[in-house]
Amino acid sequence: MSANDVVVHDDEDILTAACAARLVTRLTDAQAARGSASVVLTGGGTGIAILEQLRQSPAKDAIDWSRLDVYWGDERFVPAGDDERNDKQAREALLDHVGVDPARVHPMAPSDGEFGDDPDAAAAAYAGILAANAGPEDGDVPAFDVLLLGLGGEGHVASIFPDSQAASEDRRRVVAVRDSPKPPPTRISLTFPAIRAAAEVWLVTAGEAKADAVALALGGASELRLPAAGARGRSRTLWLLDRAAASKLGGLTGSVRP
Ligand SMILES: O=C(O)[C@H](O)[C@@H](O)[C@H](O)[C@H](O)COP(=O)(O)O
């Protein structure tokens, strides 16, 4: 497992702008090397702010959007047009404004879609989409170039909440989540085995309300109690924080191996 690299920025605006700039570099490098790239998006205020920063950046035109696969790490299981949908928010913030290939944008199913109100069927279908897009050496999940995660104050990532079934799932790559403590209650989420298929995992968060979770995760908390601790990329795990979120790290930045 990769060590945790920690980078701290002054405030949330600089954090999200710098993260958007990193995405340009990471995705253009992957496209130069292999012809295409893949990214896994997250919901939440910080995750969507990164996409807005990217939309506003002239450097976004360096990405060949038609050769990018877009996935989601989790989704709120609500109807297609609902403003709560992570994919709707991502489209409004960025995807509707760039030349993505609709066939390469892979949203999780809504609650009024082909699987009706059955999140287990929708989760299983998404696992099928991941498997269908995995390369010959990838197993059943693509080796995503970068997987973005926001962070909850109690340490959740994607829709993997503390002490939940999703946090201890070691077989299925995508699961339905019910009774989520963060509304809406029903969600679909990648599990740790799917998250860890990514080459790089970037945990991006801002604000004092996240400081305890950041310090505990980087201090070696268990992934069952504090799911952020279990989110690791194969070659890199990068924590991108603002000063407030990093305020309980005791100045610890750089490479941290709990
Ligand atoms: O759909 C969601 O709600 C998320 O994907 C969730 O994991 C989110 O990223 C965190 O809760 C952080 O959200 P904030 O950035 O708004 O704090």
Automatic annotation (TrEMBL):
Annotated GO MF terms: 6-phosphogluconolactonase activity
Family annotation (CDD domains): 6PGL (cd01400)
Pfam families: Glucosamine_iso
Metal-binding listed as a keyword: no
Catalytic activity: 6-phospho-D-glucono-1,5-lactone + H2O = 6-phospho-D-gluconate + H(+)
Keyword Amino-acid biosynthesis assigned: no
Coiled-coil regions listed: none
Gene3D superfamilies recorded: 3.40.50.1360
Pathway: Carbohydrate degradation; pentose phosphate pathway; D-ribulose 5-phosphate from D-glucose 6-phosphate (oxidative stage): step 2/3
Keywords, in A-Z order: Hydrolase
E.C. number(s) listed in UniProt: 3.1.1.31
Residues in Glucosamine/galactosamine-6-phosphate isomerase domain copies: 11-239
A single BP term in Gene Ontology: carbohydrate metabolic process
Function summary: Hydrolysis of 6-phosphogluconolactone to 6-phosphogluconate.
Family: Belongs to the glucosamine/galactosamine-6-phosphate isomerase family. 6-phosphogluconolactonase subfamily.
NCBIfam families, per database record: pgl
Name assigned to this protein: 6-phosphogluconolactonase
